[in-house]
Amino acid sequence: MPEPLPISALQHLVFCERQCALIHTEGLWAENRLTAEGTVLHENAHEAGPETHGGVRVARGLDMRSEALNLVGKSDVVEFTPLEAFHGPIAETVRAAASGPGPPLVGWGVLPVEYKRGRSKTSPEWGDCDRVQLCAQALCLEEMLGVEVPEGRLFYGQTRRRTDVPIDGALRDLTRRAVARLHALLASGETPPAVNDARCPNCSLVKLCLPQVAAGRSAAAWIDRRLNTLDREAA
C-alpha cells in the first residue's frame, strides 16, 4: 500500500487541485499573512493541552488514521461527551451512533472540531473544502474508535463562532470521492493547469503558481499582451 496521505491535503484539493499538487507533489510552499494567522490558530489549539469541563473531555492534537482511506492527520480538538449529557433531538442520534460497529467507545459521544482562520466559507470559490476535511477526520475517528460521528464543528477565528456540520450521507459521499481523487492526482505526479479566478489573489502560492501565465495560455502570449498594454499606456 502507498504511504498514507495527510487529511489536510483534502482541503487543498477541494479548494484548488493545482494548489494541492504544487504543495504535495512539487513540494512548494510559501507563507503569507493568512497562512501565518492560520498556523498560529492551530498551534494555540494544540498547545492548550487536554482539559475537562462540564463533564466534556477535550483532547487536542490527537493523532488520527484511516486504513480504509489511507489517510493520516492530527486533530485540532476532539470532544468526548458523556451520552447522558445529550438532550433533545440529537440525543437519540448520538446514543445510536455510540453503539456502532467494532469495539465501541462505550458511553461517549465524539465530536471533532477543526479550527480555521477567517469566517465560514459560503462563496462558490471556496466550496466544501473545510467540510470535507472535517468529515475525513470524522471517518478516521469512526474507524479508530468503533463509533459513528454524526456531526462536527468548524471554529472560525475571525468570527469566534462554531459552525455545526452534520456528517451526513451526502458529505460522506463527497469526502470519499475527494479522497479517491486525491490519491489519483498525487499518484499521477501531474500538476493541473491554473484557472486564474477569484481564489488566486489570497493564495500564498500565487507567485509560484503564476496563474495569470499558466491559466490555459502560453507564456509567450501573456508576455505579448503585457507588452501591448505597456505600448498603449506609453502612447
UniProtKB/TrEMBL annotation:
Gene3D superfamilies: 3.90.320.10
Note on how the cofactor is bound: Mg(2+) or Mn(2+) required for ssDNA cleavage activity.
Taxonomy, superkingdom: Bacteria
Enzyme class: hydrolase
BP terms from Gene Ontology: defense response to virus
EC number of this enzyme: 3.1.12.1
InterPro entries in the cross-refs: Cas4_exonuclease (IPR051827), CRISPR-assoc_prot_Cas4 (IPR013343), Dna2/Cas4_DUF83 (IPR022765), PDDEXK-like_dom_sf (IPR011604)
Cofactor: [4Fe-4S] cluster; iron-sulfur cluster; Mg(2+); Mn(2+)
Gene Ontology MF terms in the entry: endonuclease activity; exonuclease activity; iron-sulfur cluster binding; metal ion binding
Keywords of the record: Antiviral defense, Endonuclease, Exonuclease, Hydrolase, Iron, Iron-sulfur, Manganese, Metal-binding, Nuclease
DUF83 domain location: 112-210
Family: Belongs to the CRISPR-associated exonuclease Cas4 family.
NCBIfam families per the UniProt record, alphabetical: cas4
Official protein name in the record: CRISPR-associated exonuclease Cas4
